[in-house]
Amino acid sequence: MFRNRPIFGMIQILIFASVPAAAEDHSHHHGSGIATRADLYAPMGVMGEHMHGAGGFMLSYRYMHMRMDGNRIGRNSVSASSVLASGYMATPTDMDMDMHMFGAMYAPFDWLTLTAMIPYVEKSMNHRSGMGPFETKSDGVGDFQLGGLLRLWQNETHHFHLNFSVGFPTGGIDHEDSVPVPMLGFQKRRLPYPMQIGSGSYFLQPGITYTGKCEHFSWGVQALGRFHLNENDNDYTVGDRGDFTGWFAVPVLPWLSISARAVGRVWGNYSGADPALNPMAVPTADPKLRGGEQVDLAPGLSFTVPLGPLGEHRIAIEALLPVYRSLDGPQLETDWSIVVGWQKAF
Predict the structure, then answer these.
(1) Is the Cβ–Cβ distance between 325 and 334 less than 8 Å?
(2) Nearest of 82, 85, 62 to residue 72 by alpha carbon
(3) 279-336: per-residue pLDDT in tens?
(4) So where are the chain's domains?
(5) How far apart, in whole angstroms, are the C-alpha atoms of residue 157 and residue 154?
(6) Which of these, 251, 337, 293, 282, lies nearest to 129 by C-alpha position?
(7) How many Cα atoms within 13 Å fall on the side-chain side of residue 36?
(8) What angle do CA 78, 277, 166 make, to 5 degrees?
(9) How far apart are CA 38 and CA 301, in angstroms?
(10) 330 preceded by cis ω (within 30°)?
(11) Which of 306, 240, 309 is nearest to 38 (CA)?
């Protein structure tokens, strides 16, 4: 379980130490429209961080690109040659993932905002093997999430709410592609765990979010967990995970803000195993080589236009750069990712 990882306590200290002391009051931004100050929403990589007033409705779109290059065991990078020398028939060398996340929020009451999210994911992974290099690809709709944000308490400076969502196994876990098979050449086979689009399981994602603001800046922290509830149809359960973040944003102009964010993630190995996968063929087929922990630092920009033809639109961008990675490997390491997003309130 990820709670046993030593970095868990370090991440909690990192996040809660980032919350500044209470400052002077300022107009609250949890209404039905886009905030008039560009910093009064969290960086675009944070989801479920704000609520709406009764009747408020918002649509959103986020595009995320993640680049992985090279393998890691613990905190140490390892070469593809050394992975192959340890007995595997193939090893991944790099991977790209593109995710398109479509979201909607609606507030039937001031104290409750409902949320829905559905991703479309595209993955490609390059490999080295004794039969030469090869590439695998997969794409499809991911797991659908339906949830809500429940306000706990707020005043003009501080806001607390609970996050809760349920995930549905709408993403595929049976994606196939051509891979090298000894004595048979390239054959279509079930792809390993990182190349599947969904989890195949129902899951719960509880959390808590705090945001604050004063006249000259804003800040927030959020903690989320994801707990998979059942073994999927391929006889395994994706590992549980925890996501922890804290951010600070400053308006440079009324319509432009800059932000800085610290992100900590910890995720567990899988339980069970897909009988169609051979864990000695490639590290990505081993359910015990899926866990890890990572800390990123993320600078960001946010643009808000309160009036005119682009009124009530927000566009933001954020880059995530790892400063700490420890993986149960050999496992591909994330080098960087970027999130670009759009939000429109009605």
Answers:
(1) yes
(2) 82
(3) 999 999 999 999 999 999 999 999 987 666 666 789 999 999 999 999 999 999 999 9
(4) 2-345
(5) 8
(6) 282
(7) 6
(8) 90
(9) 9
(10) yes
(11) 306
Sorted by sequence, the CB contacts under 8 Å of residue 258 that are 6+ apart come out as 249, 250, 252, 299, 300, 301, 302
The structure tokens listed for 60 are 């959103």
Measured CA to CA, the distance from residue 236 to residue 290 in angstroms comes to 12
Which residues are CB-neighbours of 106 under 8 A, at least 6 positions away?
52, 56, 57, 58, 113, 114
Count of other CB atoms within 10 angstroms of residue 18? 17
Q: What length does the chain have?
A: 346
Element housing 83 (H / E):
helix 80-85
Is residue 143's pLDDT more than 80? yes
CATH architecture of 2-345: Beta Barrel (2.40)
Whether the CB-CB separation of 139 and 123 falls below 8 Å is answered with yes
Whole-number Cα distances in Å, 79 to 260, 287, 319, 333, 343? 33, 21, 26, 12, 42
